[in-house]
Amino acid sequence: MVNKKLLYTDKKIQIFLKFAFISDLLSNKSMDITVEKSKPLKGTIEIPADKSITHRAFMFSALTKGKMLVSNYSRGADCMSTLKIIQNLGCEVNFINEKQVLINAKNAIKPSTAPLDCGNSGTTTRLMMGILSGQKFNSKLFGDISLSKRPMKRVIVPLEEMGAKFIHNDYKLPIEIEGADLHGITYNSPLASAQVKSCLLLAGLYADGTTYFTEPYKSRNHTELMFEYMGADINIENNTVSVKKSTLNPTDITICGDISSAAFFIVAALITPDSDITIKNAGINITRSGILDVLKEMNGDIEIINERIISNEKVADIKVRYSNLKAAAVEGAIIPRLIDEIPALVIAATQAEGTTIIKDAQDLRNKEADRISAVAGEFKKLGADITETSDGFIINGKTILEGDCEIECFHDHRIAMSAYTAGLICKKPIKINEFQWVDISFPEFLALHSKLTIN
Ligand code: S3P
Fold first, then answer.
1. Are 13 and 451 in contact (CB under 8 A)?
2. Which atom of ligand 1 is nearest the CA belonging to 260?
3. How far apart are CA 254 and CA 49, in angstroms?
4. CA 123 / ligand 1 centre spacing (Å)
5. Ligand 1 pocket list (CB less than 6 A)
6. pLDDT in tens, 371-382
7. What pTM did the predictor assign?
8. Domain 31-50+256-453 class?
9. In what side-by-side order are the strands of the sheet with 186-188?
10. Where are the domains of the chain?
11. Distances (CA, A) of 157 to 170, 221, 325
12. Which of 340, 363, 412, 439 is catalytic?
């Protein structure tokens, strides 16, 4: 087990918000670690706040005319990128205590004197593009090496249809946004994407008329739920969401735990013999909980207890015990409900009897890394029987993972955490290079692992 100091203590967050560029901070901080075969995982942890919901709480608070208290926010670097951007756009950011930040929008966002750094965060970029397109001023967005390779055409094309104006680099960052008068459109998205949907709904708050967005399958609906919670004029019918020009009311928000972070611990407990853990306060929104459905279908011993609603989101505690897993077929409508959990699911599949086939997940190639090629390539090194396909994987299980190799993270937090999780059951230790990328979503990852193995 490895020890690591948190990159983001409260003091550091404050210093960072003043001076640092997130991209530089993580790229320059190389942290290689070794993971050894683990003891059983036992005990209870509280999972840190949801990244997707934190982004939205920070951004939406900037669009109100008042003050909003955000409790239990994510301290991951991605959400810090968003927080720093809204600060650069004129919001006052006050850390009240370890868990709460008060955001004062001071009436309206204002032009930033400096270009806005989206760091490694696709959600920050795409949602901010929706917001900034409808302003009366110009802005410029940039990001780190990984983010600068990611496709922005998916938001630029519909935003331009709404009247937005951009200067871009072959539809990639850096992107200049000229504030424009927007009008509503009816957009049939070829992709089930919450980032595209949220981008258009945010632009829709500034557009004349109504903005309609339809997607082939339902993607995560945190924007819709938070819009409702904050009083926007929104309507939802099956896979179509529409919004009329409207304002958001400042409304205090408490953010639930991140099911995507929890997924690594759920899989770790399912595959590490004799494990028995409880994960408290995890968001189980139906548009995010596909991983629970699939792992249960794979014979995973998973129990959902203490269901409740927090700030319009469904939350529960999750009990997980070591299980004899069996293979599953994962495709179609469930994919957007577990897109970020697929690297974790692949580890479970290596330990399941039979052949697991994951299809329709081609958009994994457009994440922080090409997650299809990265997962297949790195897991093969561990000893997994895995074949990369154009839109997913074929995994034959159950395989003994030998380990005894070096894994690369490709600037991708989820590759880092999935390698660590697989390392827990490898026969021999593995080395993970540049593990600091875990800080993008889950700076508390190693500390929580230690908590579950002190037994
Ligand atoms: C996110 C949506 C998903 C997800 C990403 C976060 C969001 O991306 O993969 O990690 O917060 O809206 P897509 O919308 O590109 O599918």
1. no
2. 10
3. 9
4. 6
5. 52, 55, 123, 193-195, 198, 219-220, 339-340, 363
6. 999 999 999 999
7. 0.95
8. alpha beta
9. 186-188, 210-214, 240-244, 234-237
10. 31-50+256-453, 51-254
11. 12, 22, 43
12. 340
